[in-house]
Amino acid sequence: MSYITIEEETIRVPDHPVIPFIAGDGIGPEIWSATKQVLDAAVHKAYAGQKQIQWQEVLAGEKAFNKTGEWLPKATLETIQKAKVALKGPLTTPIGGGIRSLNVALRQDLDLFACVRPVRYFTGVPSPLKEPEKTDMVIFRENTEDVYAGIEFEKDTPEVQKLIQLLQTDFGVKKIRFPESSALGIKPISKEGSQRLIAAAIDYALANGRKTLTLVHKGNIMKFTEGGFKKWGYELAESRYKEQTFTMNQYATLAKESQEAAKTAYDQALAAGKLIINDVIADNMLQQILLYPEKYDVIATCNLNGDYISDALAAQVGGIGIAPGGNINYQTGHAIFEATHGTAPDIAGLGKANPCSMLLSGSMLLAYLGWQEASDLVEQAIEKALLNKKVTADFAHSMENATEVTTAEFGQILVALLQE
Ligand code: NAI
């Protein structure tokens, strides 16, 4: 068995790496089966059989519960720990019993701090926009902090009463409008957590020739948390990445002295091919991505903003059936790539599921391994299949003159395209 290793933050991938997979619940097995065939065909074609993934099934979700009595067996986590990189289908969220969402558990246990969502348009996919092809962004959403830390206190509990009293007496807080009937939540945002996420986004932008990186925040209202995110982002760019980037914070500082000097520095940075780093307030960003998507490239943002922006952008280019994602710790190398939709119980077992989200997540996985050629082949095959309008039910309904095919048939069409 050959495993991926990380040496000095660089990933080392053997020719036959073991990659664990979780097929997932509901439509999971159908989309996984199509995905495996297509990824294997792409790798085979790209490297003439010299490289091949050794897929290893690990259990999670309903399948794990039925077989082992546990929703997330320890062995699954240990295997992913060891193999570093995994691919996963959607999992049923267990209801009640205090069990955390399995996705959240996986992300927290492996400290997968960056949720990476590339959003691009594939010609022919139904979209609500007039010019959906202008949308081509990669979102880096912080995955471990913010209101998602789960520090919340329910109304009327002794904890919330104690905390409100502490805030009022020790901190002089007078602005809790209804202290008798409030619940409270805490929003931790750290310099360390923000900078590791923003560094990953800058590294990605530089490695992939992207032109701009936008820090999205609500620092006008939350000055120390989201405002901190912006401030620490600019500080990082202006120190660790000062040769490769130019920030709009530098522009603003120069402009205080002279508009002309700021403009010249900006033009010089553009001419030198530097990455331009700017920032946009989160609510404005939701307008910007609709009105001027072509102006945005890589986005780095806090957890909650990232949640909203990811779904809004996914809808702009065709919705959840086609939006891929990866949860990555760029320091340890651990990464789980996953379909971003749920288990779709309403269509499970009917051959109607669109496997593109999982397939494109697989394509991201291949790129993460450094197998860019194979990754590109997967995307090209999907592009061609969509142009030929042989698509699964979700797209067939809203594409003119489309032929509906099953999940398995769609996979076979892609494999045939890869074998041409
Ligand atoms: P869902 O994403 O499963 O379904 C929402 C709608 O989108 C349904 O109409 C479904 O048929 C459709 N849909 C989803 N994926 C599709 C695909 N690949 N092709 C065609 N149509 C697709 O969301 P829902 O119903 O809220 O959740 C169902 C279960 O999935 C729940 O247990 C939920 O907790 C879990 N879930 C798991 C996620 C994960 O594992 N990453 C993410 C979201 C939900």
Describe this structure in words.
The protein has helices spanning 28-47, 61-68, 74-83, 102-109, 158-170, 191-207, 226-239, 248-257, 259-271, 282-291, 303-316, 356-368, 372-387, 393-396, 407-419, and strands at 5-7, 10-12, 18-22, 54-57, 85-88, 114-120, 136-142, 152-153, 184-185, 212-217, 245-247, 275-281, 298-301, 324-328, 335-339, 390-391, 403-404. With 420 residues, it is of the alpha/beta class. An 11-stranded mixed β-sheet has the order 4-3-5-15-14-6-7-13-10-12-11, with helices on both faces. A two-stranded antiparallel ribbon has the order 1-2. Strands 8-9 form a two-stranded antiparallel sheet. Strand 16 (390-391), helix 14 (393-396) and strand 17 (403-404) form a beta-alpha-beta unit. Helix 1 (28-47) runs parallel beside helix 15 and helix 10 packs parallel to helix 11 (303-316). It starts with a strand and ends with a helix. It binds 1,4-dihydronicotinamide adenine dinucleotide. 1,4-dihydronicotinamide adenine dinucleotide (NAI) is lined by residues 27, 90-93, 103, 320-321, 338, 341-347, 353-354, 357, 394.
Task: Write a brief caption for the model.
The protein has 420 residues and is α/β, with parallel strands linked by helices. It has helices at 28-47, 61-68, 74-83, 102-109, 158-170, 191-207, 226-239, 248-257, 259-271, 282-291, 303-316, 356-368, 372-387, 393-396, 407-419; strands spanning 5-7, 10-12, 18-22, 54-57, 85-88, 114-120, 136-142, 152-153, 184-185, 212-217, 245-247, 275-281, 298-301, 324-328, 335-339, 390-391, 403-404.
